[in-house]
Specification:
CATH superfamily of the largest domain: Medium-chain alcohol dehydrogenases, catalytic domain
Strand content: 25-35%
CATH class of the largest domain: Alpha Beta
Structural class: alpha/beta
Distance between the termini: 24 Å
Helix content: 25-40%
Number of strands: 17
Length: 352
């Protein structure tokens, strides 16, 4: 039996870089040699056991990755050995009411490669053809590994209905918030605002897009500042990409802040996966006849992301704070846990 090296989550909180069996492929699958894989916020929850019992242990996580096809099943029609591919980790059932209307992110039994089954933190992975997106070989492999997280930004932008000349605020300057920022900037050249409590993340956003406004919620009331920036109109769209939030004296929670900062008939798009109830005052939403929409994973936006990468309109290097060898994965998770202000997207380099 052929073997490979993989980062195995042996128990919650502990990875082991070890030899495991190489996956075999079905007739409709390919075998991908992973080039780079990214550590996601969801991976951090998995690492700590917060997705239990959904996530099994021991297993190989990783749902943000890209690589090259080294073997293709006999039923694979549109891909060949040597193609660089990004793998969409979403596996939907195709039978539930959401799937029947082709709204796959809302599948009632949605599964993800790297969450519900072994993922991309190994040297090789098998993947069905329908999950593959061909990536131009001119796109660096490390950028290809960011397609999944950037696609989350594009999906959120689509869910919120971002249009040309919309004004937007993004609460949360982490991996997802920065991805939303990049996606939104391809759609509107108007005012963009980012809110966070970690100044280094705000500085990164400002360095990447010097024309945006950044607000440190520990120093300034974001709602008041947003009203000031927009001449008391409020923004067209507010994204909540924080989830777990820190209570700040004199500040409303981020979701309520989003509601307060939009204009009449504006939109709030929620992505943050917090576990605790978030209190809002519904009349603040009703008075504006505004709407709240939710956004989860992506829905074919890999194609949008790849197209924008090819055009050079995105800034993928801005997301990458560290590149580690996969055997250093334990260190990577500990870095993100203890020094969140210093690290954004950590990539694991399987090419070395």
């Amino acid at each position: 039996m052929k073997s490979m090296q993989a980062a195995v989550l042996e128990v919650y909180g502990r990875f082991n870089w070890k030899e495991v069996a190489m996956p075999s492929i079905a007739d409709n699958e390919v075998l991908v040699k992973v080039s780079y894989a990214g550590i996601c916020g969801s991976d951090q929850h998995i690492f700590k056991g917060e997705f239990h019992p959904r996530t099994p242990v021991p297993f190989v996580p990783g749902h943000e990755f890209a690589g090259h096809i080294v073997e293709a099943g006999k039923e694979v029609k549109n891909f060949v050995v040597g193609d660089q591919v990004a793998v969409d980790p979403i596996i939907w059932c195709g039978k539930c009411p959401a799937c029947q209307i082709h709204h796959y992110p809302a599948c009632t039994s949605l599964k993800l490669i790297g969450v519900d089954m072994n993922g991309g933190f190994g040297q090789y992975i098998n993947a069905p053809e329908h999950t593959l997106y061909k990536v131009d070989p001119k796109i660096p492999p490390k950028h290809a590994a960011l397609i999944e997280v950037l696609s989350i930004g594009f999906h959120a932008s689509n869910r919120a209905g971002v249009k040309k000349d919309d004004t937007v605020v993004i609460w949360g300057a982490g991996k997802v918030g920065q991805s939303i920022l990049q996606a939104v900037r391809t759609k509107t050249s108007n005012t963009l605002i980012m809110v966070d409590i970690l100044q280094k993340r705000l500085d990164l956003a400002k360095k990447t897009y010097p024309d945006i406004h950044v607000i440190n919620a520990q120093e300034t009331d974001p709602v008041i500042k947003i009203k000031e920036i927009t001449e008391n109109k409020g923004v067209d769209i507010a994204f909540e990409a924080i989830g777990h939030f820190q209570d700040l004296p004199g500040r409303v929670n981020p979701l309520r802040g989003c509601i307060q900062s939009i204009r009449g008939a504006g939109t709030v798009c929620v992505l943050g996966l917090g576990d605790d109830p978030t209190p809002i005052l519904l009349k603040e939403l009703i008075w504006k006849e505004a709407k709240i929409v939710a956004s989860r994973v992506s829905h074919g936006e890999f194609a949008d992301t790849i197209r924008e990468l090819e055009k050079g309109t995105l800034k993928p290097d801005a997301l990458i704070s560290d590149i580690l060898h996969p055997k250093e994965i334990q260190k990577g998770f500990e870095m993100l846990e203890t020094e969140p202000q210093d690290h954004l997207k950590i990539l694991l380099d399987f090419t070395s």
